[in-house]
Design goal:
- The structure holds two protein chains of two kinds.
- Chain A is mainly alpha-helical.
- Chain A has a two-stranded antiparallel ribbon.
- By secondary structure, chain B is α/β, with parallel strands linked by helices.
- Helix content of chain B is 39%, strand content 24%.
- In chain B, the strands form four sheets. In chain B, strands 6-7-8-3-9-10 form a six-stranded mixed β-sheet, sandwiched between helices. In chain B, strands 16-17-18-13-19-20 form a six-stranded mixed β-sheet, with helices on both faces. In chain B, strands 2-1-4-5 form a four-stranded antiparallel β-sheet, covered by helices on one side.
- In chain B, a hairpin with a 2-residue loop joins β19 and β20.
- The chains are: A mainly alpha, B alpha/beta.
Chain lengths: 376, 557
Amino acid sequence: MSDHDSRGSHESNPLDVVPMGGGIGGGMAHMEAAGAHEGVENAIELKEVEGLSQGRIILRRFLHHRGAMISLIILVALLLLAYSSIGFKVFGLQIPGWWKYQYTDITNNSNNLHPTLSLWPPRFGAHPFGQDEIGHDVFAETMRGVQQSFMIIVVIGVVSTAIGVVVGAVAGYFGGLIDALLMRLTDMFIIVPLIILAAVIGHYAAGAGPFVLAVLLGVLVWTSLARLVRGEVLTLRSREFVEAAKVAGASHRRIIFKHILPNAAGVIIVSMTLTMAAAILLEAALGYLGLGVQLPDISLGSLISTYESSFGTRPWLFWYTGTFILVIALTVNFIGDGLRDAFDPRQRRKLSRRAKQEASSSRPAALIETMNKAGQ
Amino acid sequence: MTSERTAGRGPVLKIENLGVDFWVDGTWYPAATGMNYEVQPGEVLAIVGESGSGKSSSSMALLGLLPPNGRVNGRIEFKGRDISAVSASQLRKIRGEEIAVIFQEPMTALNPVYTIGAQIIEMLRTHKGMVPADARARTLELLELVEMPQPEVSIDKYPHQLSGGQRQRAMIAMAVSCEPALLIADEPTTALDVTVQAEILDLMRDLRHKVDSAIVLITHDMGVVADMADRIIVMKDGVIVEAGDVHTVFSSPSHEYTEKLLAAVPKLSVEIDAAEAEEARVSAEKPILTFEDVVIEYPKRGRIPAFRAVDGVSFEIRAGEVVALVGESGSGKTTIGRAAIGLLPVHSGTLEVNGTNIAGAKEKVLRDVRRDAGIVFQDPGSSLNPRLPIGESIGEPIMLAGKAKGAELQKRVETLLDEVELPRSYRNRYPHELSGGQRQRVGIARALALRPPLLIADEPTSALDVSVQARFLDLLQGLQEQLRFACLFITHDLAVVDVLAHRVLVMHKGVLVEQGVKDQVLRRPKDPYTQRLIAAVPVPDPVVQRERRELRAAGRQ
């Protein structure tokens, strides 16, 4: 994209001296001078225009979404906790964490296996989430579970999005026979209950480690995204800018990837986050069936499965794991919601009640004056 | 206000200091301020202005139909009663019963899952409390009143089974069903073809005498105003800049904006100017676009049979010539434009672009041919990729043709921006940051990027306001004179044709009914369809318009 590189390298033009905010005014002066009054655009339009790129507008709207921002902060904090506490492995190198136990360590019984965590007085204790019968530290186990589960949902999100986008875009863009074939293939994936397919795959992939399992699950859950993308591409395909690109001599690949998909980015990103939220539940369900991540490795799902029998006697083995599943699923869902609102330009921030009560006092007087002047 | 009160009766509607604001990103932005006007019974008041002038929002405010982020202040007096502060349920009662609205787009304003009869009957039953049999009888009367063909049959039809004009008639029937004292018509004919528009305007004029409603007509079309209105209000940026009797405003506008607005309206002049020499000069040039007996069909899909959109069309366009292709919606004019650039396959016949036959040509040949032709699309909102800065959109054809790269490409993009009179800094802007007129100029720059010998313009001005349109046409004309490309200008607006074209082609139902030099086609049309088309164009002059109307009425009897 050579165009991108050279952006902003043309500031020598005298018309450019006006800073971005005043750019419109400068442009308008230019036009007025040219004799016509294209400046008939009213204040509302100008307010909307302000010279922000679409990406900036979306980011700003996302940052204003309270639910999504809170969720993002919680999620990031959770991940920091999980990775810093027990450390992690990169390329076989163990980065140590600040927590004294590993999830594999067998520790001595203390506090009768009960959790030592207490909110008031604030106290972490030796085993904040308690221990199991063997002596595993549940806190370390849960942290490991969060790490693994999060890795799994990210991989599922990326793999399923990649497949779904390509299948959906190709089906929607080319239509006809290709569309029919790809969509019937999608239907085949949809009609078989996901949990059965996942169980079969989980059974065979059990020994191969959580990463392979995640990739295989990703290969199963792309269907809804493919349909969404196809629908989006179908509407975008008939837009005139696609025809204009065709006239300009663009290849099919360029039209799909440069002209159509960026305009479907909203749908894709939103669907990806929602798939990820669903994936953590799928992983938990598989783990519960004993088909997910296998011991000695741990995921949140396999933890629940392992401690299933002790539900009545030592419920804390459940509580913490369940809470973390809930928190991850909820935060990812909220972030997805925020993204959807940010990408949908029809989402306008609602009129706050206070603003409504502020009756006519808040009319920008200067603006009205200029309007009246223009009207004279 | 210039009007006096008619004896005995007060105004139907009296607006005092009306203001409308919208809540945008944390502040109230005024869409209209300090409006004062009144409407007398049986009077037609036209509110004109360009898009964004506040004419629609101020009128919708009367009915409490603003979007949730809008608010109204000021006094709205309807039949002597202030309705600006009444409860929602009272307002609902007034709406429909005493104030009715005719919307711009009848297809979206009518509910597609009910027959038009059912929708009118519902109105009558809710507001008048009629029993079903009576309501149906009254509906038939109403459909007859609006001159719906075969009312007994049409009453049971769904909106999609009717033509645009018939739908608008149904809409009007519904609006007048409760004999409202005030009718608000929001661009009632903008979505219609000229011949249909003339019929609907005639109908509304007749109705006004039959049902004695006052009409507030919101429009941007000065021709429609001249045809219908008694009084006129001109709005600009949310403020009334001029108000008065329609004859006075048209003959001696007092505000400069009104003057500009009137001057910007392209007029279909009636006199013949001697410019026939053009013909001889152009015919010496080589043909750039040749259609020979071209047939274009949309293939059959499922049970829908194949549709022949263009049937046996032959014409040619020579270098340096602007040929206008006119016709009403569905006449196949856009189909011809798309086929000429290889976006639609040709069923039979020969279609040559710059000497290459593209009928049945392979994708690769088409790709080469497209370098010889540029196209400007109708809708400036959808013809540019919203995710690409416009500099990239303009440069794309050059880059893909491998003509230039890097700095060289940037330079050519700048030249193109200069040519269409946009500041160079706009190269980094995104389409949504530009106004409609500016986007359309970007469209021209992209179409001309490879300096093609042929430019196809598919209704490029139909989405633009008149003053913007005038400027756009100037620009296009200037570029054409400078670069001497052949241009196929597709439009439904005969006044635009008069400004721009050398020759005119007239399409009707997929067939070319007339072609010839502009003056001959516009001033001395031979084909009866062309004659009808030209007679239907409203002229922005109330006096001429009345003469034409009388002539038309005389011709019908």
